[in-house]
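2024-03-11 09:14:02 INFO worker-7 job=invfold-0412 stage=load source=structure_tokens
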């Protein structure tokens, strides 16, 4: 009999917080949906943020831009809706390849109460037959940066075709939800099909006209842990969620695939035969990183909403010691399978950054996972850090990416050793 898990403590905080803006999710979403365009309705600060986060794109025109809200819009001298219509018409005349246009709300557009839902409906009618127009909020007011993807996918989830029972044979059996690099997505689809699940679709699609078709029997599984609103919309539309750990690390990926197999009543022998080669590869690839990370103490600041599944991976598969795992918000239903595997960890929900910094300094961790705004000051104090945003931009899901994920946590120690500064 297994020993009972120690209770999980949760510190709930509401105070000053350090997180990236939800607009930054555009950087990976625009690469995923290849004929979509993301038009931020915001300020010059929004434009600078997106450009600095994306870097300079030399060989291709990026598929995102900012419609600048300036003093004339804020003072009411100009009609913001007329200005937006003009910008969209110019954009689509110049880029007829755009098949899906997202109007992305920002802090400034929300402050002046610009109704982008109505704007999307109006512009959708104007450009019907050429470009579909949708909207979502990427505002950084009281949100974390991955909520931008959640808002975008929730809009897409509300728009997918839901077939009635007589036509359901044409619907997807399984919907994998969450933006993944194409090679990872392909691996997951192939593994699911090898288990005998014939019709597997993904949200978001790679092209606007490939939006999944679902039916009453379609089940969905989250590949990203921050898709709370998307999950709610899919359940409201009648889809059944598959509860599982998230596919980080060898063991996490195996549990994720087993949950899929169980939900579709696949024979256990077939499921294990499908996943065992990848599981063996993943376990073996982690061995060299475990020698570096085992016994190291780690502290998570809340940022990306990946913190809980990553903490489980680091504790279970690499032997790291969890001091505190901070999350922007805690959805116990979505995180249930992960929380069941965390032993005696202290969680913090929300943030009071000054108090959390005090706890971090007092604990003297070997590694701190945090946003860019905190990393440099902590490094100056001699504390080794890992940028949390890198964990979102990198391919880290699945068996064959388990070692790459572990390497992201091992690399800061190698950096310290190379520059000759001992970790605190």
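2024-03-11 09:14:09 INFO worker-7 stage=emit residues=424
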């Amino acid at each position: 009999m297994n020993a009972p898990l120690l209770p999980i403590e949760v510190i709930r905080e509401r105070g000053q917080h350090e997180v990236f803006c939800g607009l930054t999710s555009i950087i990976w979403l625009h690469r995923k949906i290849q004929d979509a365009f993301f038009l931020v309705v915001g300020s010059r600060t929004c434009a600078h943020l997106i450009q600095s986060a994306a870097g300079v794109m030399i060989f291709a025109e990026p598929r995102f831009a900012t419609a600048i809200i300036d003093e004339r819009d804020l003072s009411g001298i100009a009609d913001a809706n007329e200005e937006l219509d003009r910008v969209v018409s110019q954009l689509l005349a110049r880029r007829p390849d755009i098949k899906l246009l997202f109007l992305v709300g920002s802090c400034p557009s929300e402050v002046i109460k610009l109704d982008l839902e109505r704007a999307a409906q109006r512009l959708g009618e104007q450009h019907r037959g050429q470009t579909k127009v949708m909207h979502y909020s990427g505002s950084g007011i009281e949100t974390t940066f991955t909520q931008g993807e959640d808002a975008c996918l929730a809009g897409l989830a509300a728009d997918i075709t839901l077939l009635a029972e007589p036509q359901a044979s044409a619907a997807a059996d399984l919907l994998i939800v969450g933006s993944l690099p194409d090679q990872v997505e392909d691996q997951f689809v192939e593994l699911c099909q090898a288990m005998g699940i014939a019709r597997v679709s993904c949200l978001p699609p790679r092209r606007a006209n490939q939006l999944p078709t679902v039916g009453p029997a379609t089940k969905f599984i989250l590949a990203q842990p921050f898709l709370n609103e998307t999950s709610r919309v899919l359940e409201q539309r009648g889809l059944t969620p598959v509860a599982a750990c998230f596919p980080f690390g060898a063991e996490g990926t195996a549990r994720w695939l087993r949950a899929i197999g169980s939900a579709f009543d696949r024979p256990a022998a077939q499921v294990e035969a499908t996943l065992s080669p990848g599981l063996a590869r993943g376990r073996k690839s982690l061995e060299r990183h475990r020698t570096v990370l085992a016994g190291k103490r780690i502290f998570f600041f809340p940022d990306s909403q990946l913190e809980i599944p990553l903490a489980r991976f680091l504790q279970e598969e690499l032997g790291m010691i969890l001091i505190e795992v901070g999350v922007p918000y805690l959805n116990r239903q979505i995180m249930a399978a992960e929380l069941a595997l965390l032993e005696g960890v202290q969680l913090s929900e929300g943030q009071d950054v000054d108090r959390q910094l005090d706890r971090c300094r007092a604990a003297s961790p070997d590694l701190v996972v945090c946003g860019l705004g905190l990393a440099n000051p902590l490094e100056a104090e001699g504390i080794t850090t890992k940028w949390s945003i890198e964990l979102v931009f990198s391919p880290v899901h699945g068996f064959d990416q388990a070692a790459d994920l572990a390497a992201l946590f091992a690399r800061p120690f190698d950096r310290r050793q190379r520059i000759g500064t001992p970790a605190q």
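2024-03-11 09:14:09 INFO worker-7 stage=report msg="Residues 268-293 form the longest helix (26 residues)."
2024-03-11 09:14:10 INFO worker-7 job finished
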